[in-house]
Each structure stands twice: as structure tokens, then as C-alpha cells.
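Bench log, entry 3. Co-assembly request; chain sequences pasted below exactly as received.
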Amino acid sequence: MVRSIDPVLQRGIVVRRLHWLGPLAAAFPSSALAAPLEHPADIAWVCIAAALVFFMQAGFALLEGGFARAKNATNVIMKNMADLAFGALAFWAVGFGLMFGINPSGWLGISHFLPETLSGTESVFLLFQAMFAATAATIVSGAVAERMRFGPYVIASVVISALIYPVYGSWTWGSFFDGKGWLAALGFTDFAGSTVVHSVGGWCALAGAIAVGPRLGRFAPDGTPRPIPGHNLPSIALGVFVLWLGWFGFNGGSTLAASGDVGVVLVNTHLAGAAGMVGTYLMLVALGRPLLMTTTANGAIAGLVAITAGCATMPAGFAILTGLIAAPVMVLGGDLLERLRVDDVVGAVPVHAFCGVWGTLAAGLFYKGDLFSAERVTVQLAGIGGAFLWAFPAAWITFWALKRTTGLRADTLHEQRGLDYTEHYEIGYPEFQKELLHGGKG
Amino acid sequence: MARDNGGAALRAALSTGLAAVLGEARVGAALQLWERRNAGGKPYTMIEYVNELTSTLALPARQRHELRIALYRALMERGIDPTLNTALPQAAQRPAAQQAANAPFRVFRCVVHDVLGSVRADTMGGAQLFESTLRLRAAEHGLSAGLQQALLQWIDGADDNGYFLRAAPADYAAVTHLLYVAACEALGPVATDRLFSRAIARAEALPEAAAFPPQRLL
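Structure output for the full assembly:
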């Protein structure tokens, strides 16, 4: 059944439902964000942006598949596809209501579950947000690649899409219909989701990587990390280009309006991504390390993650600084994880969790017209801490429960044979892997 | 007489393989090493021979690999199984049915010897770690007591009293997996995948691989 509303009334309802953008709009550098989703051009732009964010899934698949060994590439890509598909249904059924439903308490939405009668404008909004949910969920797959079984991963991604991500999102971005999240009420700034999407996904990834344990032989008994190179570096590079492209939809679409504001957001996004990559070069040179493509590519993603929170609320110079500082955060964060013997195959935790934290802090520090405000930074820290205290334990409990019930980790024989074959009975590169192709399916 | 003919064929094959990599000038000394070792009557595998020869001649690792491949190729061109010792010329003349019956064992032995040889050649202390991991993990992986004992005897260089010859192919696969796990712990997963890939490729060159493809061990 399609709901029929007077167009003038509907426009008023939509504008009122997007009141959560109010504080942000008031503080935007170009005086104010245009009213969101008001005109057909807004709808068209957000639809295009949703498609760009969807395309980021391809970027993640290329990046994570390339980082994995050849015998696990198909499994990683299957996980990317599965969290998109299962996550979309879970977010539509439960997540959207929890995140954007009527939110009287400020802690979670309580309406609009299984939404069937949304207006066209609301549907565009749901589509755009479903893509964000898929992004948060898919961050996990790279961290737990090559040893987590497919079935438990799918269950975990459903929990993330339906519960963990939306609950935190409701604190910051809820509600679309009525009420307001408690972090939003405090004045927490996270324009497109450095914390809401990336840190939450990153903390879930950290919980998953710890729960499933490192890959066989990843660390020597004395803790020395043993590098396991990805099987396809061109694929990693292509994945980063695709992600970078998608980020223009991710951040630019978050204006929810086809206005000149988009330009500022896109320029900041692009500059921070570039600065992240340049910063990584400089960091590697300073540390006397080889200029690895894999690390510098991750540097670009680090810069993009970091600018996501403040891309609409800081001048270009600070956007560059945000991207530059994201580089050491990512590089040193990766070192820290290795020292702690946490095996994160693609570097998802330093890139998304740690740089999400930095970016959210930067959004408070470099807020246009209110630079280095202690009060604003305190609120930002509350939001950052809230994300960790909610997402990490919730994900940890999820993975722990899966470990105790269905089992989480592929056994060593499956690690030997590769999860492509043991989980999906097909391999990515049969011409090149024939000497290691097991003769039976036992 | 047959043995003499087999010995001559073996010597000719070794000469061909050695000359291809080392050149004619060093063939004589290399063959003397082979004959000196075999004079003791102790089983002496091709892998051990190549390792000792390359150590004696101070050859780089890449040349060791080339030498082993050249010797295998030369032996197989003359119908000699390169995974066995000097008794091989007789084995090559065994009836085909008997050869097929022992195929799983011979393929398994080829892979294991190759893996053990490579692990022992590691100069970074991987061999000790490999063996300690193997002992530690043998029980965890559900190997029977007999299989564990035979494996450890074999690793220690002692005779397994024919245990593996009588074992089932499933046992071979279990042992191969245990070796994989131990190698991952000792050398790292990348080196282990390469090592096993090479070992399987070499075992594929055996005549017995037609009856028992080495991939069945994986």
C-alpha cells in the first residue's frame, strides 16, 4: 500500500524529520546546509550517492580479496557480498527502526520496523542509510579474513547491521521521525560517520579478530609477527581507487541535498584522502621503512575515514591536517596491534577504528568558528567513548556466543586447504592452484 | 647381474643430472660422495645426498633446488624412482601391481622427505621448533598412539618398523596435515605453503602419482 500525502504537507514532514541536521546546518562553514531532500535534484543526488556508497562494497571486495592469500580470496569476497545482502534485509527489518524510528528516550528508535509504506523521499533516505549499514558491517570481514567460517560471519554481520550499528546510530543520528539521540542532544558532531560507521565497524572488527585468533603461524612463539602478503596487489590498489570514488557519495551524499555545500564536502574529502596517502609516505620514510603500496593505499583510506566526521564543518587546511595525522595513527596503530598479537589481515582496525576516533576528535578540534573548544572536544570524546563501550562489548558477546554455539574458526585443515574450497567448494584461481587442490571434498 | 645393471643405470643417471648443473669437472667428486655414503649399507635418500653435496660444495640454495630437479629428471628418464635409495634399481623392476599397491606410501614418503629436508635446511632455528611443535600437536590432532610413535621415530631418523607401509591413506593425510601445522608454526604460513607446493609438485613426478595423486594427502 502506497501512502498518499499532500505534497506540501509531505515536504513539511520530511524537513521536520530531518531536524537532526539542524545543529550541523547551523554550524556549516558556508553559513548553512541547504534544506535536505526538498527538491527532485536532492532526491537524484542522494540516489546517485547511494549508488556510489554501494559501489564501495566492490572496493572493499577488491581490497580485502587482494589482501588475502589466493586460497581464501573467494571466501573473503563471498563475505563481502553476504554482509551486503543479509545486512540489507536485517537493516530494513530491524535496523532502520532502531536507528531512525521514533526515539523518545534518546537511546533507540521504537517504530518503523519492517517499513512497508514509506514515501518516496523516506525510501531514498532508507536506501542511503542501508548502504551505510552495509559499510559498517563489511569492515569486519577484512579483519577476520582467512580463518573465520562463513556461516558464523553471516550471523555476526546480521547482528551488526540490525543491532550494533543502528543502536549507536540512533544516539547520534536518530531520529528521522521524532525524538533525538542523546549524543546529538549534547552536540556531538559526526557528519558522515567517522565514528558512527567506521569506528563502530572497526571496534566490531577488533572484537572479531581477537575472538577468532590469529591465522596459523601468523606470529612466531616469541611474538614476532610473520608477514603474510596479499595475493593480488593490483586488486588492492584498484579497491582503494573504488573506495575513494565511493567516498564522494558517502560524504557528499550525507548533505542530503544537491547544493553548493556538496562541493566543500567533496573538496575536504579529496584533500584528506590525498593527505592520508602523503602522510603515510612521509611516515614510512621517517621510520626508515620500505614504501609499501599496501600501507600507502591504506593511508588514503585512513585519511578518508578521518575526514568523514568533519568534512562539512572544517576548512580545507584543517581537512589536510586531519588526513596527514591519520597516517601515523594508522601506521602506529597497526604496529600496536601486531605487538598485541592481534591479526588484522587488511588493517581494518587501525584504519577504521583508530582513524575514526582521530577524525571524530578532529571534527571537534577544528570546528569552523569554534576552534579547539574544550567543551566541544569533551562531547566528541563522549561520543568516541560511547562507540567503543557499546560496539566492542556487544560485538565481543556476539562472537563469543557464536564461538560457543556454532563455532567461529575454521579448523587448521581448512586453513591449510583454504576457505575457498572448504567453505564454498570452489577456488579463485584453479589454473594456478592445481598442485594444492585437494582431491576430495571430505 | 640385474643389480649390477641397476647400479650402472643409477650411476649413469646421477652423472647426467650432476653434469647438467655442476658441469663435467665436478661429477667425479660428486659421484664419489654418493658411493662412499652407500658403502655403509645405510639407506641414503636423494634429498640427503643433495643436501650433503651442496653443503660440501657450498652451493647456494637455488642451485640445490636445480640440482635436485636435474637428478630427479635424469633418474626418472631411466625408470628409477628417485625417492628410494640404492635398492631402487631392483624396485624399479617390481611388478606393476605391487608398485601400485605401495603407491600411497611412496607418494607420502616422497612428500614427507621433501618437507623434512626443507625444514631441516632452515638455518633460522625452524627445525627445532618444527619438531617440538610436532611432538606437542601430535596428540591434539587425534593421531593414534601407534601413528604418533611411528612418526616421531621417523622424525628422529629411526626405523618406523614398517608402520607407515601398512597405514591407510587417511593416516597419511592426517600426518601430512600435522606436518603442515608444525611447519606453519616453525617457518610461517607463506614459507610452508611454498614448501608444500614444491613437495607436491615433485611427488607428482613419481610414476606412483598416477595411482595415488599426491593432492590426496592435502
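The two ends of chain A are 50 Å apart (CA to CA). Confidence is low (pLDDT under 50) at residues 1-33 of chain A.
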